[in-house]
Amino acid sequence: MTDLTVDEDEARSPWKRIIAILCVVGLILTMVVGGLLAVFMGVIASSAGAVGSDGAGCVPASTASSASWGEATSTRPTPPASSSSKPPASSTGWGSSSTGEAVPAAAAAPQSIEIPNGRGGKITLNEKQIAIATRIITVGRDLGVSDKGLKIALMTALQESVLRMYANSSVPESLNYPHDAVGSDHDSVNPFQQRVSGWGTVAELMNLDYSIKAFFGGPTGPNGGSPRGLLDITGWENMAPGVAAQTVQVSAYPDAYDKWEPAAEQLIATLGEGIIGGGCSGSIDGEIQLPLRSDYNMTSGYGPRSIGVPGASTWHAAIDLQRWPDPCGDPVYAILPGKVVLSSALWLSIEHADGYVVSYLHMYKSQRLVDVGDTVEAGEQIGVVGNVPPSGGCHLDLRINVANNTNPEVAKLILSQNDTRLPRPATLPEHQDFVNPEDFFELWGVELCPVGSCQ
To answer: Which H helix or E strand runs over 189?
Structure first.
């Protein structure tokens, strides 16, 4: 009996081994499949967060395939390396709605930060000062500046203004712009105390983004290398931070910047996490450029108008801009990347990857720098201001048609035929499916025609 039992167990043992092996294989397969599923779900969740679940109000710049127009339609367009005649970009005042936190997983900016004041004590920065510090970091990273360069810029702004937008009592015009404090040092204004006599116009220097870009300088800097910005100085990377700051500023107190190095490092560590190049400054990702250099005037607004120019429309689906008193021949810049789809006697039209079309009117065709089929970058010069009829003088007519738009943020804008904010909406077909250019720019957090600098 015992021998028989042993024989039956031995006969069944191969099946036991097979069943055991199958169980082990099944367990391994279950673990592998479960792991792959978890990784896949993690990737999906990460992608969703990167596309617009970050709570920062950003959406992709383009809902179309970036392959449509090649390199000109990248999701995060950045300013091209062009000549110094390129206009200032992004915000048109220090109080822009952007604080540079438009990136996935970036934490909300604190309401106050305590930093060392360089003299053994502490000072507390308020929200406005933090916004300026954050913008310096954001613009710098958009320009590809290293953290050492950001530190030098922050040290400079801390020493010159403690991160405040300064007007100047000796420059009365500066008092017309938003400011935090009023100084009287020569003709110096803004957080970097840049002088009107050398660094730019009052309107430009009271623009935070312009002042930051002027400090950094470089190939795309608005100062064109004179005065020199940080990136214009050979070997600045090998200099001590305070020496590099002094080389830019040429201050009467050359050793004053060093004491702010710990504070600048703290600000980069606190505010810079998550800020990468190509950040957004409104509800749309990417960078938008102004069509003319920033000190222009508005000569005709959007909507119905009374005008004595023969052939000119009495319903204006555009905004007219000119830089008085010599508007003729002034450079005109593409506000966004795109492809030229029309170049007639009067019109130059550039289509964006999202389907909307930006048109620039009154430039003489012989003076245009692009033609049908060309792709352009934001900030690229496309021609000069002209006086092609019907026109009452040299100016730029800027208009935006959204009939074929696919971008959900742009789709929220009020069409010309539905704009009840105006005395009367557009009724003729040729005036319909346009949007107010000022509303369009606000999607990027940019004032196209700010009060006080665009009358």
So the answer is: strand 188-189
Residue type, 30: T
SS3 label, residue 400: strand
Residues 427 and 329: their CA atoms lie apart, in Å, by 34
Burial 41-72 (b: 16+ CB within 10 A, else e): eeeeeeeeeeeeebebbbbbbbebeeeebeeb
- Exposure string of 9-25, with b = 16+ CB inside 10 Å and e = fewer, is eeeeeeeeeeeeeeeee
Tell me how many helices (H) and strands (E) the chain has.
9, 18
| CA within 13 Å, CB half, 195 | 12
Q: Who contacts 50 (Cβ-Cβ below 8 Å, separation ≥6)?
A: 104
Amino acid occupying residue 107: A
- Nearest residue to 354 via CA among 414, 266, 286, 439: 286
End-to-end C-alpha distance for the chain, whole angstroms: 112
Task: Tell how far CA 361 is from the center of its chain.
Answer: 25
Give the type of residue at 427: T
Local confidence pLDDT in tens for the 455 residues of the chain: 334 333 334 344 555 566 656 665 666 665 555 554 444 433 333 332 222 223 222 333 444 433 232 222 222 223 333 333 333 333 323 333 333 333 333 345 678 999 998 777 899 999 999 999 999 998 898 888 889 999 999 999 999 999 999 999 999 999 999 999 999 999 999 999 999 999 999 999 999 999 999 999 998 889 888 999 999 999 999 999 999 999 999 988 888 999 999 999 999 998 887 565 544 444 565 678 889 987 788 999 999 998 888 888 899 999 999 988 888 999 999 999 999 999 999 999 999 999 999 999 999 999 999 999 999 988 899 999 999 999 889 999 999 999 999 999 999 999 999 999 999 999 999 999 999 999 999 998 888 887 766 76
DSSP string computed for 289-331:
B-SS-SS-EEEE-SEE----STT--SEE-SEEEE-TT--TT-E
Torsion angle of C-alpha atoms 314, 315, 317, 322, degrees rounded to 10? 30
Alpha carbon distance 63, 60 (integer Å): 7
Which long-range contacts does 342-345 make (Cβ < 8 Å, 24+ apart)?
Answer: 342/372, 343/368, 343/370, 343/371, 343/372, 345/388
Is the pTM above the cut of 0.70? Answer: no
Instruction: Find out whether 269 and 255 touch, Cβ atoms under 8 Å.
Output: no
Is-contact 395 299, C-beta < 8 A? yes
393 neighbors 322 (Cβ within 8 angstroms): yes
